[in-house]
């Protein structure tokens, strides 16, 4: 069976995120095979929950033509036959609810229906079988349509007027945004936010610590490849041709607006719930995993809402961009059963759950020291513990001082000592060949995911590193590592990558624990007000991504600092001469690493036993059986040295091949064939050569209906000969074919001033 992997799902590793490039059903079945023995199918049959029923909604905005949003819903056959009015659970995203997400949706939504809920999956405007155009993420138009859909569902004669919103990645984010709107529907009673964000600038796929991420390009390219596929004539009839033509003609390449807002201005703030938790009107259950790029929002939402006395629940597991019942790496938990009995029933049916069955306010996985690798399970190297929104009050800081000899010591340097360690970009003849063992932004977290971080040693060797002595005892941490540095730099724009790793006493390999970037123009802390890097020594504080981990006795803790991290962090336009001063300098305190120590809590006891690890979900083959597999799917990530016009460089190539399959059931013998290719390339010593380029190829066929879509994108930088300024350049093409003949095409290109990245 196949499914699309949303880039945030994969961001969307750790990074092709919630469902962009396609991964075939063949790959999904491989993942299932890897879990053999720890998965049960929930007792859902087609007699209980039939094929989802098609439905449309008419929505509108002032000054725009009305739009038809298309989708379907699962329902409990006995309840509907008896005339029972049911509460509803709603998900809206642009990932094509039929040939896009139906397989993965079928693992979860039919279970909600089996338990007496209506479960809706609706395509946003300009996607799937819906009309209109989608011009960006989370626009006022999109969110208004979400509100209108919720209100219309609440008014259906089969609905009792109580609605929950749910989602992973995109639909997680818009669910949280709807909950914080002034016009939040009174029918909305609760939301579930899985692998979503409350801060679009810092904790999504755009900027991290103010440094631009490769996903600012890759995700825009993913959506450019994902959106232009046509509606299905089996659903919309003859109108599919004109809808498809207008969809292609109205395509926009979202990198343009994302790159035009290089600071955390109102463009990002107005839809970032982090700036207005007080407006959230309903209970929120927010989750993510350590291998995902959406960890920090779980904590921010937990503390933000919990501190205001608002109902909130949270979970941080070991997995990537997946739900807890279906995540990799494991252990997974039986979340589907729990979320109905203790969340939806509580807030949509007013049934108080058994207090003994409730998980803590924050259910937290603490990993242990382990060798780096892509194991599908961490069951034997960690444990579940209990936390809450007041956890910061219990942190016991552990401070380590950076020393000129490359050590991390709990002892401060001697008075008057100072040292400078240059962070060179050219090492061992491979300048800028960096970051290839690093994770991407958000991980799909599957057994076959090549984007999970590997041995960090190659990157460590191209960084300035500081190691502790082998630990004399275990050190348990939960929170944000903070690195305080004194730096000097000769360029007005520069960024650093800071990684926290642990070094194995047996193999010497380096395992990534946490990381982040810091654009030095935001060293003062206000990301809306960048300041050029000054001359002389200045202080900079990097707050790394949240982590929960036990550094084991005998292992070393390592801090690594570098001014580049290809391909994850987009490179600064010029190679800086950047120096790190480890000792006290110019009246500034010495450089330090501060770790958030955690003591055991009584609430930890017995929690692991309460979390059922034998997970269960609906057999998706009930709704989308594979009729025939013509080509198996595959996923490859290759790093290679290249030579471009005599200049050596590094190329990272990723290919996501869905395979070629004919899918039955709801899809009625639809052939699906999707291949996505994403590439990032940089030439040695030429930071402006940092380039992203992608190609998507999609084929859909049922009987005599045959369509193909081919998209290409390219983003790069140039220095203008007229005034020496640096700009981003971009171009994107889309072509749609019917029966091998060109049906419609579109091309966009442009230039964006590169000011602060």
How many H/I helices?
16
**C-alpha-based Rg, rounded:** 25 Å
Total beta-strand segments = 37
Q: Beta-strand level of the residues, as a percent range?
A: 35-45%
Major β-sheet annotation: 12 strands, mixed
Q: What is the average of the pLDDT values?
A: 90
Question: Helix/strand-derived class?
Answer: alpha+beta
Distance N terminus to C terminus? 41 Å
Uncertain stretches: 1-37, 420-449
Give the SSE map.
Blueprint: E1 3-6, H1 7-10, E2 17-23, H2 25-34, E3 39-41, E4 53-59, E5 67-74, H3 77-81, E6 86-93, H4 102-105, H5 109-114, E7 118-123, H6 140-154, E8 159-168, H7 170-179, E9 188-194, E10 207-208, E11 211-212, H8 215-226, H9 233-236, H10 240-249, H11 255-260, H12 266-269, E12 284-289, H13 296-306, E13 312-317, H14 335-349, E14 362-368, E15 382-387, E16 396-402, E17 408-409, E18 420-423, H15 457-460, E19 464-467, E20 475-479, E21 482-489, E22 495-503, E23 510-519, E24 537-543, E25 547-551, E26 556-562, E27 578-581, E28 592-597, H16 607-610, E29 615-617, E30 626-631, E31 634-644, E32 647-663, E33 670-683, E34 686-702, E35 705-719, E36 726-738, E37 741-753
Parallel strand pairs: 3-29, 6-7, 6-8, 8-9, 9-12, 12-13, 13-14, 14-25
Antiparallel strand pairs: 1-2, 4-5, 5-7, 10-11, 14-15, 16-17, 16-28, 18-27, 19-26, 20-25, 21-24, 21-27, 21-28, 22-23, 22-26, 30-32, 31-32, 32-33, 33-34, 34-35, 35-36, 36-37
Structure write-up:
The chain is an alpha+beta fold and 757 residues long. 16% of the residues lie in helices and 36% in strands. It is built from 16 helices and 37 strands. Strands 4, 5, 6, 7, 8, 9, 12, 13, 14, 15, 20 and 25 form a twelve-stranded mixed sheet that branches. Strands 30, 31, 32, 33, 34, 35, 36 and 37 form an eight-stranded antiparallel sheet that branches. Helix 6 packs across helix 7. The relative contact order is 0.15. Mean pLDDT is 90; it is low at 1-37 and 420-449.
């Amino acid at each position: 069976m196949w499914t699309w992997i949303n880039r945030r799902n994969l961001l969307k590793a750790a990074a092709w995120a919630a469902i962009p490039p396609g991964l075939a059903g063949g790959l999904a079945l491989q993942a299932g095979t890897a879990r053999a023995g720890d998965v049960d199918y929930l007792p859902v049959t087609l007699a209980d929950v039939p094929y989802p029923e098609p439905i449309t909604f008419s929505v509108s905005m002032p000054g725009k033509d009305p739009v038809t949003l298309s989708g379907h819903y699962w329902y409990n056959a006995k309840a509907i036959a008896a005339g029972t009015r049911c509460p509803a659970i709603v998900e809206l995203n642009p990932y094509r609810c039929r040939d896009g997400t139906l397989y993965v949706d079928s693992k979860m939504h039919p279970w909600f229906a089996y338990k007496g809920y209506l479960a809706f999956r609706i395509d946003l405007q300009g996607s799937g079988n819906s009309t209109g155009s989608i011009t960006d993420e989370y626009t006022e138009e999109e969110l208004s349509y979400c509100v209108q859909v919720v209100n219309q569902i609440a008014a259906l004669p089969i609905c009792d007027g109580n609605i929950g919103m749910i989602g992973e990645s995109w639909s997680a984010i818009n669910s949280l945004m709807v909950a914080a709107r002034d016009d939040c529907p009174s029918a909305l009673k609760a939301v579930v936010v899985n692998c979503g964000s409350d801060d679009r600038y810092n904790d999504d796929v755009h900027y991290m610590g103010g440094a631009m991420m490769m996903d600012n390009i890759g995700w825009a390219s993913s959506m450019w490849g994902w959106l232009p596929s046509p509606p299905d004539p089996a659903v919309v009839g003859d109108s599919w041709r004109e809808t498809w033509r207008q969809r292609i003609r109205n395509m926009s390449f979202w990198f343009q607006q994302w790159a035009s807002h290089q600071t955390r201005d109102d463009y990002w703030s107005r839809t970032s719930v982090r700036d207005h938790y007080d407006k959230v009107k309903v209970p929120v259950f927010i989750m993510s995993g350590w291998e995902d790029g959406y960890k920090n929002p779980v904590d921010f939402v937990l503390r933000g809402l919990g501190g205001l006395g608002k109902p909130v629940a949270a979970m941080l597991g070991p997995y990537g961009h997946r739900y807890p019942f279906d995540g990799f790496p494991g252990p997974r938990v039986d979340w589907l059963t729990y979320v109905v009995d203790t969340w939806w029933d509580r807030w949509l049916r007013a049934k108080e759950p058994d207090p003994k069955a409730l998980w803590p306010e924050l259910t937290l996985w603490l990993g242990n020291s382990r060798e780096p690798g892509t194991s599908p399970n961490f069951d034997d190297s960690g444990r579940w513990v209990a936390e809450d929104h007041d956890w910061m009050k219990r942190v016991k800081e552990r401070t380590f001082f950076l020393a000129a000899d490359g050590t991390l010591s709990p002892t401060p340097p001697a008075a008057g000592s100072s040292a400078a360690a240059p962070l060179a970009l050219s090492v061992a003849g491979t300048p800028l060949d960096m970051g290839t063992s690093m994770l991407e932004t958000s991980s799909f977290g599957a057994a076959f995911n090549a984007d999970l971080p590997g041995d960090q040693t190659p990157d460590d060797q191209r960084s300035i590193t500081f190691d502790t002595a082998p630990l004399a005892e275990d050190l348990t941490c939960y929170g944000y590592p903070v690195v305080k540095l004194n730096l000097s730099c000769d360029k007005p724009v520069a960024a650093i990558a800071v990684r926290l790793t642990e070094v194995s006493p047996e193999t010497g390999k380096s395992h990534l624990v946490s990381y982040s970037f810091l654009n030095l123009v935001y060293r003062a802390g206000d990301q809306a007000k960048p300041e050029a890097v000054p001359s002389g020594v200045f202080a900079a504080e990097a707050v790394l991504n949240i982590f929960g981990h036990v550094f084991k006795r005998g292992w070393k803790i390592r801090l690594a600092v570098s001014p580049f991290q290809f391909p994850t962090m987009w490179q600064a336009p010029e190679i800086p001469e950047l120096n790190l001063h480890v000792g006290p300098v110019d009246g500034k305190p010495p450089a330090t690493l501060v770790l958030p120590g955690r003591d055991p809590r009584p609430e930890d006891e017995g929690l692991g036993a309460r979390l059922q690890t034998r997970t269960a979900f609906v057999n998706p083959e009930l709704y989308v059986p594979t009729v025939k597999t013509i080509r198996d799917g595959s996923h490859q990530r290759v790093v290679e040295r290249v030579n471009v016009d005599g200049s050596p460089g590094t190329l990272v190539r990723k290919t996501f091949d869905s395979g070629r399959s004919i899918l039955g059931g709801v899809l009625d013998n639809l052939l699906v064939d999707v291949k996505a290719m994403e590439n990032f390339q940089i030439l040695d010593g030429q930071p402006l050569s940092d380039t992203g380029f992608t190609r998507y190829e999609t084929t859909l066929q049922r009987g005599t209906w045959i369509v193909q879509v081919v998209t290409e994108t390219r983003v790069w930088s140039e220095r203008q000969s007229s005034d020496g300024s640096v700009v981003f350049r971009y171009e994107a093409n889309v072509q749609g074919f019917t029966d091998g003949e060109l049906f419609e095409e579109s091309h966009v290109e442009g230039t964006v001033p590169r000011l602060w990245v």
